[in-house]
From TrEMBL:
This is AraC family transcriptional regulator. It comes from Halolactibacillus alkaliphilus. Gene3D superfamilies: Homeodomain-like (1.10.10.60). Signal peptide: none annotated. The chain crosses the membrane at residues 12-34, 287-308. PANTHER family: ARAC-FAMILY TRANSCRIPTIONAL REGULATOR, REGULATORY PROTEIN POCR. Keywords: DNA-binding, Membrane, Transcription, Transcription regulation, Transmembrane, Transmembrane helix. The lineage of its organism: Bacteria, Bacillati, Bacillota, Bacilli, Bacillales. Residues 631-730 form the HTH araC/xylS-type domain. GO terms for molecular function: DNA-binding transcription factor activity; sequence-specific DNA binding. It holds the Pfam family GGDEF_2. Coiled coil: none annotated. The keyword tRNA processing does not apply.
């Protein structure tokens, strides 16, 4: 798996995209998360501070109300020291204190003490001495003297009073200062601590921590505890206040706590001690949603990473799939696609070089086939033919062409290549040699820049001079463009049929064969000869084109009626005679339709039908002849493939055809070149001998027609994959 991960291009793409995704994803996620937590923490602490301020303001409002009540009491005549010391009016004063207590929900009890008579404490329930007051309210944490001293404070004071019943009261002493800078008494408000605690619960809500109200001496007046990890006794409030003022936290039992402080003008301090890291429990749903969102984004990112990796890998995958069928199988297949492609391209370059070498060897044969199709008028679209000519390194840009045929003896035919083929270009003319069916006949296609009979004659004369003996030459007329060379070739073949009427070594021009008498009558001798030659060769397209030209001339040129009939019957007679010479039987009804024509259109239509049927029959005969010849050639090869001197030229000599034509027949019928076919036969023979006999390898190689054993061994290994010796051991 790790090998694949290291070498597979797809996994590299996947890893690259994943890393490119996960790094910014992680950084962004952490950044958002940290800021999110920080914002929540800040909001939480700010909310706690705001709640603490609300509690402070609420208590300050109470204290201001207490001050107002104390001021009203100091101005109330029924509650002055005189009335309260009078035996009769004292009860009115007590009733008045009861009214103050009843009219306010801010306190549970109210006590009035004058400094001139500190031994009497007036409440809504009566007046008491300090001892009786302590007993009446069952106070346990102060003595009578301490209580008297507390009531005589000249500054506002607060004190926690504990009772036997477990109740805790916060006693707030408010000095009375009527029309004097010095207080002469005090009003004490006793408030049960639970009222303060209920107000302080809002400062924490669901948070874990403590909230305290401290007096000016840092004594705890009220506390609300929502954390069991530590007690109030563990706290040093001097240190806590110092840290809180510096906006810092404290550590208690190894845990971090945040401090929030609100200080009032009267010296009271309101402080919250909050345990840090509570967001996970308080905002569990929000954090879970955030994590789920991150998880969804992560999976979407992974999917996108996979899709992008597949998209980027697809071209390489397609290339690998394309090269796999052509890649040679080895013991160790490459896992890395890049190496596969590199090896495949190396192999393709090697195959291309081998193919180029093979094409170079077979280019002359391919050129021969190209020109043969062109001479027969069998050519594809112009664009396709131009591409084919370019690949075969043939130049077809000359504006004019003509074709002439050399009729040689056997000796001249064998030396023709050495004496002539290296000198085909002359002045601005460019020539190409085409091997015809007969070994002693050579066709030359010549391109020229201008249509000039003198240049045509000069070129033919030069070719004849290059040869040791002057051959007979028949030539067609100069035509426009390479696409009309089949016309010039057909004219040359027409002239070829008249060689017997001319002396040896003559040069016969097709356009000079017509007599003056025929010209004066408008006799279509040239076209008629082309038509007959096309019929003999089974070239249906050329025959139809020529017939069209003949009847076009008959319609356009002025002739007498007798001259027109004479020409028409001569055409009929020539066609019928040619068919008879070819052995084509003509039915009487067909002959009658030809001679009983009424209009030129009727005659043209009958001739079209007759020529089409005849050309198709000739093509079938030619195909049968070719098949028969191919079978004879193949049988000959199968008998003589072990001969050292077996060659394409020797087969061509034996069957009196050109080497290029013999190669074409073998290639068309078996899909293999002559060389490959012979080599396959020899390879099969060697493999058979290696398997069934114990003859030495050298002897087997010599028997099959090879003299160079080392060269054969290389060919054998290239084809079979092992050497002959290894093949014998394996089989």
């Amino acid at each position: 798996m790790f090998t694949i991960f290291k070498q597979k291009i797809f996994y590299r793409y996947l890893l690259s995209y994943f890393v490119a995704f996960i790094i910014p994803f992680a950084l962004l996620g952490m950044f958002v998360y940290v800021n999110f937590i920080a914002d929540l923490q800040e909001e939480l602490e700010q909310a706690s501070l705001n709640n603490l301020r609300q509690v402070s303001e609420s208590i300050n409002d109470r204290k201001r109300e207490f001050t107002n009540i104390a001021t009203r009491i100091s101005s109330d005549a029924r509650l002055n020291s005189y009335h309260l010391t009078h035996p009769y009016y004292v009860y009115e004063g007590i009733q008045e204190l009861g009214k103050y207590r009843s009219n306010s929900i801010l306190f549970d009890e109210i006590a009035l003490v004058y400094h001139q008579n500190p031994e009497k404490i007036y409440t809504s329930r009566g007046y008491h001495a300090p001892d009786n007051f302590i007993k009446r309210y069952e106070i346990t944490n102060v003595t009578a003297d301490e209580l008297s001293a507390l009531f005589q404070e000249e500054m506002p004071k607060a004190k926690v009073l504990n009772t036997r019943e477990g109740r805790e009261y916060l006693a707030i002493i408010q000095p009375i200062v009527p029309n004097s800078l010095f207080p002469h008494g005090s009003v004490t408000y006793m408030i049960e601590k639970k009222h303060f605690v209920s107000a302080m619960t809002t400062t924490l809500s669901d948070l874990v921590g403590h909230t305290y109200i401290l007096d000016e001496n840092q004594d705890v007046l009220v506390e609300y505890i929502n954390d069991e990890h530590f007690s109030t006794d563990q706290l040093d409030f001097d240190e806590i206040l110092k840290e809180a003022k510096n906006d810092e936290g404290i550590i208690i039992d190894g845990k971090n706590y945040a401090l929030k402080l609100v200080e009032s003008n009267d010296g009271w301090s309101y402080i919250s001690i909050l345990q840090e890291g509570q967001l996970f429990s308080l905002f569990k749903g929000t954090l879970t949603s955030y994590l789920l969102m991150l998880l969804v984004v992560f999976f979407v990112g992974v999917i996108i990473t996979y899709v992008l990796s597949k998209y980027q890998y697809k071209p390489i995958d397609l290339l690998v799939k394309q090269v796999k069928p052509v890649q040679k199988q080895g013991k160790h297949q490459e896992i890395n696609e890049i190496k596969q492609l590199m090896h495949a391209f190396e192999q393709l370059n090697h195959d291309k070089a081998a193919l180029s070498k093979t094409l170079y060897k077979h280019r002359p044969f391919a050129q021969q086939q190209f020109w043969m199709h062109l001479l027969k008028g069998e050519y594809p679209a112009k664009e396709t033919m131009t591409e084919m000519a370019s690949s075969l390194q043939l130049n077809l840009d000359k504006p004019h062409y003509f074709v002439f045929v050399l009729h040689l003896d056997m000796a001249s035919a064998k030396t023709f290549k050495q004496s002539v083929e290296q000198h085909l270009n002359y002045k601005d003319m460019q020539g190409y040699v085409v091997d015809l069916l007969k070994l002693t006949d050579k066709a030359l296609i010549v391109g020229m820049d201008r249509k000039n009979k003198a240049d045509q004659t000069a070129y033919i004369k030069r070719i004849k001079q290059l040869m040791k003996i002057e051959p007979t030459v028949v030539t067609g007329t100069i035509v426009e463009g390479v696409y009309q060379v089949h016309t010039s070739y057909l004219e040359a073949m027409v002239a070829y049929n008249y060689m017997s009427y001319y002396p040896a070594s003559s040069t016969i021009f097709f356009d000079e064969m017509t007599t003056s008498t025929e010209e004066s009558l408008g006799y279509l001798k040239e076209e008629q000869l082309k038509l007959l030659q096309a019929i003999k060769q089974g070239q249906q397209t050329i025959a139809n084109e020529t017939l069209t030209l003949i009847f076009k001339n008959l319609r356009e040129r002025e002739r007498s009626l007798n001259a027109l009939k004479a020409v028409c019957f001569d055409v009929i007679n020539s066609v019928v005679r040619t068919l008879s010479e070819m052995g084509v039987a003509l039915e009487e009804t067909t002959f009658n339709r030809l001679v009983d024509f009424v209009t030129l259109d009727q005659l043209e239509d009958h001739l079209y039908q007759l020529i089409d049927a005849t050309c198709q029959e000739i093509q079938v005969q030619l195909a049968d002849d070719n098949n028969r010849m191919v079978q004879e050639i193949i049988q000959y090869i199968q008998v003589h493939y072990k001969d050292y001197d077996l060659s394409l030229e020797s087969i061509a000599d034996k069957y009196h055809i050109s080497a290029s034509y013999a190669s074409k027949l073998i290639k068309e019928h078996y899909g293999l070149s002559f060389k490959q076919y012979v080599q396959d036969l020899r390879m099969e023979y060697v493999k058979e001998q290696l398997t069934v006999t114990s003859k030495p390898i050298k002897a087997i190689v010599h028997d099959v027609g090879y003299k160079d054993v080392a060269n054969f061994t290389r060919k054998f290994k290239k084809e079979v994959g092992v050497t002959p010796g290894q093949y014998r051991k394996l089989n």
